[in-house]
């Protein structure tokens, strides 16, 4: 078995095991831990950590000498990640302050789960493992690496839809959101903290203000979100050009990376 076939086989097998482990046991683990701890937030975090074990084992089989923190792209600067995310999402924050009211009641455990916990673990699963591993350690390019991960990322948010129109809108928005988070993650030297904090802050603003019941949003909700996205893209491009850094995503790395493209 060649190295490439072995790599793809182990990678796919590891993700499939994780997927069904998560599908069939996540809720059971969560309920069990909640009964012991009496905390939804603790149960959510620990259930994610336990169900991540197949992914961690997969990465250690593929890269026995690399630390998990590096393979999950968590060894970069969290401060830089937060700074870019906070500045970039200021249009959302300011716009929502102007056009929306703060929600009357806040369940802090649910807020933690729907913002920080979900953002952290979803970015590890989809951006770092499912997309990042393929792009960083194979010759697959940007578009070929993101397809499966972004489709699955969009699929897990479809429960928010009430009708076919909302389903299509939510699928399109979350799929494109995955592409955006991945691009920023790659262009920031594979700093997953940028994507984590972007995901967290965007979810947080959406939750604490009465914007919309789901991610399909409305005129002003989406307007300020897109303004933030454009600002973040502009900031990343400006910084790369100012520092004369090479862009990770170019025509040479869209589908299959050319040999001179280094990840």
Based on the model shown, name its key terms:
263 residues, mainly alpha, 11 helices, 73% helix
Please characterize this protein's 3D structure.
- Keywords: Membrane, Transmembrane, Transmembrane helix.
- Residues 111-204 form the CAAX prenyl protease 2/Lysostaphin resistance protein A-like domain.
- It comes from Chryseobacterium pennae.
- The structure is a single chain.
- This protein is 73% helix and 0% strand.
- The chain has 263 residues and is mainly α.
- The chain folds into two domains: 1-65; 73-253, no CATH class.
- Helix 5 (78-88) packs across helix 10 (192-208) and helix 7 crosses helix 9 (164-187).
- The longest helix is centred in the N-terminal third of the chain and has 35 residues, at 3-37.
- The two termini are 25 Å apart.
């Amino acid at each position: 078995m060649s190295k490439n076939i072995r790599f793809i086989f182990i990678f796919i097998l590891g993700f499939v095991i994780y997927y069904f482990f998560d599908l069939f046991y996540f809720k059971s683990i969560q309920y069990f831990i909640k009964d012991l701890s009496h905390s939804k937030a603790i149960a959510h975090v620990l259930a994610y950590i336990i169900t991540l074990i197949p992914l961690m084992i997969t990465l250690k089989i593929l890269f026995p000498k690399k630390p998990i923190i590096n393979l999950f792209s968590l060894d970069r600067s969290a401060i830089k990640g937060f700074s870019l995310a906070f500045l970039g999402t200021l249009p959302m924050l300011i716009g929502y302050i102007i056009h929306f009211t703060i929600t009357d009641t806040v369940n802090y455990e649910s807020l933690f789960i729907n913002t920080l916990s979900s953002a952290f673990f979803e970015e590890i699963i989809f951006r770092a493992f499912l997309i990042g591993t393929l792009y960083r350690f194979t010759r697959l390019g940007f578009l070929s690496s993101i397809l499966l991960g972004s489709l699955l990322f969009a699929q897990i948010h479809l429960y928010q839809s009430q009708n076919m129109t909302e389903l299509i809108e939510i699928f399109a928005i979350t799929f494109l959101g995955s592409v955006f988070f991945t691009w920023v993650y790659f262009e920031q030297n594979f700093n997953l903290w940028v994507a984590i904090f972007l995901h967290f802050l965007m979810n947080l603003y959406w939750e604490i203000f009465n914007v919309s019941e789901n991610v399909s949003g409305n005129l002003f909700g989406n307007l300020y979100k897109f303004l933030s996205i454009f600002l973040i893209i502009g900031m990343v491009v400006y910084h790369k050009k100012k520092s004369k850094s090479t862009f990770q995503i170019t025509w040479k790395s869209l589908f299959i990376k050319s040999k001179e493209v280094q990840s």
